[in-house]
Amino acid sequence: MTIINSTLTPASPTRKGLGFPFLFHNSGVNQKIYKNYMHMAVGHVLNFLENRDTPFSGVQPEELKKRFDLIDLDNSQQNVDFEKVLEEVKDLYLDHAVAFHHPKYIAHLNCPILTPAIAAEVLISSVNSSLDTWDQSAGGTLIEQKLIRWTCDLIGYKDQADGIFTSGGTQSNLMALLMARDQFCQEKLGVNIKIDGLPPEASRFRIFTSENSHFSIKKNAAVLGLGHKSVIGVPVDNQFRMSTSALEEAIKEELNKGNIPIAVIGTAGTTDFGSIDPLEKIASIASKYQLWFHTDAAVGGALLMSSTQASRLKGIEHSDSVTIDYHKTFFQPVSCSGFLFKNKDAARYICYHADYLNSKEQEKQGLPNNVNKSLQTTKRFDALKLWMTLRTLGREMLSKHYEYTLLLSKQAAHLIGKDPAFELLHQPELNCLVFRFNPGSNLNEEQLNVLNLNIRQSLFKEGKVIIASTKVRGTTYLKFTILNPLMTIKDFHFILNQIKQHADLHQ
């Protein structure tokens, strides 16, 4: 007979939740704590909105790090007042967080966000559903799948299409390349990569994309074991769009070398220029050479919502897969992104059945488990943000937010183009503008590069204006990314004058 030592048996609590007042559950004490904490947190957010006259405080890493060095995370002190914790967070984070809602922030692809989506974040975090299996999410699963179908309809995909919410464009692009690689190996070489690993031919696989496409293409090719060398950068035209004649030449050249083309990637909105590759022509070439055709529309996907702009992505419906970032141009909090694919059968290259999670028996029962088509297992309910936004604003109103930013971008380009102190590199297709300060003085190219980089850095250090910089064929340029519908022409005048003032400081 086995004797259980009673001294090792945990005592049963006499009251529900005794000793655990901070856990989120339905006791009166815990509900009171939840309400109070939420109220205090909202107060700090409102303070962040009301007291930020600039998009950035200008704090430097070494200055802020000194405050972090004073924090002891292993301090055993208990019952620290939550308001003091929030004050500490304010000092360490909120006072210095970059304010993407501020009209003087036009650096990266960070949009101001919509209030219904913020409300959704409260529900998402509080209920904490995991959107991998039906028995962890129930209705959340169907909300995500309804939004995937909505996005597929925008693209022009038929009923056979499917998709999944992802963490962002990098993950979505990874899934596209994985499907392209695995489908080629299965159908052309008879190799199941999930079981057998990469075949010897993999060292000769080639992926074709614009030389201005997102860096995640090369990064993901490396993750998939194909290496950077597998990615062939295709030259662009004078508006930084992929040259389809150069694409076909590149494919033929790789074939002549004995290499194996497996995929081509079109970009609907490059990160620097917002350029849209000629998707319809690319689709035709991809079909001719039997290549997987992926469209990275992380930047330009919101055009599909617009009744007046959607035609600019003509040809996207021929893609085998599409990336769309809702957290860029649909005004959603990060992260909120989608990966869509034309043929739902392609999910088999990602699916893995675990007996405890998504057994084949459950699949036969018809349970809608999102983990069957996801690289993630635990999956946040990010779809709720877009759901509550669409149900509150509607597609037309949401689209108007985006369309107005396109108009603002044209207005900014007009201002820059007529100012002799600036050199505009391109006309905007979407929200991105690349230009440089060049007053026509005796500065050589190297000096102009240093000057423009110094302008950007000193603006950031001051904090009144935040813009970005980039390099184009070795030359340093400044960059606007205009995603805030609250901006006005006065804001652009102010920003350009600030650039001139900081240029004077560095000449």
Could you explain how this protein is built, in words?
By secondary structure, this protein is an alpha/beta fold. The chain folds into 3 domains: 28-99, PLP-dependent transferase-like (Up-down Bundle), CATH 1.20.1650.10; 130-393, 3-Layer(aba) Sandwich (Aspartate Aminotransferase, domain 2), CATH 3.40.640; 396-505, Aspartate Aminotransferase, domain 1. It has helices at residues 28-50, 61-68, 82-94, 115-127, 134-137, 139-155, 169-189, 193-196, 216-223, 244-256, 279-288, 326-329, 360-365, 383-393, 395-418, 445-462, 489-505, and strands at residues 162-166, 205-210, 231-234, 260-267, 292-296, 321-325, 337-341, 422-424, 432-437, 468-472, 475-481. A 7-stranded mixed sheet has the order 1-7-6-5-4-2-3, with helices on both faces. It has a 4-stranded antiparallel sheet with strand order 8-9-11-10, covered by helices on one side. Helix 9 (216-223) links the parallel strand 2 and strand 3 (231-234). Helix 1 packs parallel to helix 3 (82-94), helix 15 (395-418) packs across helix 17 and helix 16 crosses helix 17 (489-505). The longest helix has 24 residues, at 395-418.
